[in-house]
Amino acid sequence: MLANAVKFVRPQGTVSLSVGQDGTGAVLRVTDDGIGLSAEDQRQVFTVRLPLQTAMAG
Predict the structure, then answer these.
(1) What is the pLDDT of residues 1-47, one digit of tens each?
(2) Residue 16 bridge partners (DSSP)
């Protein structure tokens, strides 16, 4: 996510990284002022996608 934020941030833009705690787990947050994602892409951002050969062999 951090690499993606850096890749798509606008020139002279800002990328921020923060780490916090949520109960017993950690929260890593990446924010930027880049072009953003469509609503559809936001819903699928953590969907696992396997290469076709790997998925077919499985």
Answers:
(1) 888 888 888 899 999 999 999 888 999 999 999 888 888 888 887 77
(2) 31
C-alpha to C-alpha distance for 46 and 2, rounded to whole angstroms: 14
CA atoms of 56 and 25, how far apart (whole Å): 35
Query: What is the Cα gyration radius of the chain?
Result: 15
Cα separation, 57 vs 6, in Å, equals 34
pTM above 0.85, yes or no: no
What is d(CA 28, CA 18) in angstroms, rounded to the nearest whole number? Answer: 6
Please report, as a single letter, which amino acid is at residue 3. A
* End-to-end alpha carbon distance in the chain: 27
